[in-house]
Design goal:
Number of strands: 11
Helix content: 40-55%
Shape: globular
Distance between the termini: 57 Å
Radius of gyration: 20 Å
Strand order of the largest sheet: 1-11-8-7-5-6
Order of helices and strands: EHEHEHEHHHEHEHEEEEHEH
Structural class: alpha/beta
Length: 298
C-alpha cells in the first residue's frame, strides 16, 4: 500500500481563494476585516509565524497589523493594549501570539480578549460553546484538521479517531469536535497522553490517527494498522549534516515507513501548517461578518 498524500498547501490555497472573494465583498460594503496580532518578546518561531500570518492576511486584503512589544512588557501594560483593541471598531480579530514571557499570565491575557474577537478560539466562552456544539470560533489547527479530512473526502462518521496529545490548543478541542453528532464528526474518540500505559494498544485501533505531541518521529510504523489515515500535527527540527541547512523538519510520525501502511497521510511540512493560517483568515472573516450583522441590528 502506498498512502495518498494529503496536500494541505493545495487545500489551503483553495480555501484562501474563496475567502478572498468574501473579503472583497466585505470591502465593497465598507467593512474591511481588521486583524491585530500582539507579539511580546523575540521568540524566533513566534516571529516567523506572525510574519506568515501577516503576509497571508495582507495578500487577501485584510488590514493586518502587528503590535510588537519588548520582552519586559508588564502584564498591566499588555492588558491595557488588549482593552484598547477590544474597543477599536476597526479591529475585528485579536490574536496574542503564544508563548508569552514567563512573567505574564497567559490565561489572564486570553480571558481579557473580547470573545467576539477571539479568533484563536481560546477564550473560556468560546471553549464552552465548542464543547456544547454551538456556533463559535474553533481553534485554528483543529478546524484546519477537520477541513483537511472533509475536503479530502475522508469520512469520520462511526470511525475510531485516536488523538495522541491532550493540549488545550489541539488535542482537547479536537476531541470535543469529533465526538459531536455533526457532519465531519460523529466519531468514537480516544485521547492518549503521557499517562497512557500502552500507547500502541490504542494507536493500532485507530481508523484515523492524529499525532500532536511534539516529539520527532515518535509514532512508528508498528504502532499503526494497515489502511489508517494519519494526520501529523508535529513540527520538529532534527539535526542532519546531509542537509544544506544542517537540519530537517519532521513531524511526530515516522513518515516514510508509515506511508507504506496508511491509506492517507499528511506531510510535514505542507500538511496541517498551511491550514492553520487559512483557518485564522476564516475566523477573521467570520468575526467581521458577525460584527457587521450586530452593528446593523444594534
Amino acid at each position: 500500500m502506498s498512502a495518498t498524500i494529503i496536500d494541505g498547501k493545495k487545500i489551503a490555497e483553495g480555501i484562501k481563494h474563496s475567502l478572498k472573494e468574501e473579503i472583497e465583498n466585505l470591502r465593497r460594503r465598507g467593512s474591511t476585516p481588521g486583524l491585530a496580532v500582539v507579539l511580546v518578546g523575540q521568540n524566533p518561531a513566534s516571529q516567523i509565524y506572525v510574519s506568515m500570518k501577516n503576509k497571508t492576511a495582507a495578500d487577501l486584503g485584510i488590514n493586518s497589523r502587528t503590535i510588537t512589544l519588548p520582552e519586559a512588557t508588564t502584564q498591566m501594560e499588555l492588558l491595557q493594549i488588549v482593552r484598547e483593541l477590544n474597543e477599536d471598531r476597526t479591529v475585528h480579530a485579536i490574536l496574542i501570539q503564544l508563548p508569552l514571557p514567563s512573567h505574564i499570565d497567559e490565561t489572564m491575557m486570553i480571558n481579557s480578549i473580547a470573545p467576539e474577537k477571539d479568533v484563536d478560539g481560546f477564550h473560556p466562552i468560546n471553549r464552552g460553546k465548542l464543547m456544547l456544539g454551538a456556533d463559535t470560533f474553533i481553534p485554528c489547527t483543529p478546524l484546519g484538521i477537520q477541513q483537511l479530512l472533509a475536503i479530502s473526502q475522508i469520512n469520520t462518521d462511526g470511525k475510531h479517531v485516536v488523538i495522541v496529545g491532550r493540549s488545550r490548543i489541539v488535542g482537547l478541542p479536537l476531541a470535543n469536535m469529533f465526538i459531536q453528532k455533526k457532519d465531519g464528526a460523529n466519531a468514537t474518540v480516544t485521547v492518549c497522553h503521557t499517562g497512557t500505559g500502552d500507547l500502541t494498544h490504542f494507536t493500532r485501533q485507530a481508523d484515523i490517527l492524529i499525532a500532536a505531541i511534539g516529539k520527532a518521529e515518535f509514532i512508528k510504523a508498528q504502532m499503526v494498522k494497515e489502511g489508517v489515515v494519519v494526520i501529523d500535527v508535529g513540527v520538529n527540527r532534527l539535526e542532519d549534516s546531509k542537509d544544506s541547512k544542517g537540519y530537517r523538519i519532521v513531524g511526530d510520525v515516522e513518515f516514510a515507513a508509515i506511508a507504506k501502511k496508511a491509506s492517507a497521510i499528511t506531510p510535514v511540512p505542507g500538511g496541517v501548517g498551511p491550514m492553520t493560517i487559512a483557518m485564522l483568515i476564516y475566523n477573521t472573516v467570520k468575526a467581521t461578518k458577525e460584527f457587521c450583522a450586530s452593528s446593523s441590528t444594534g
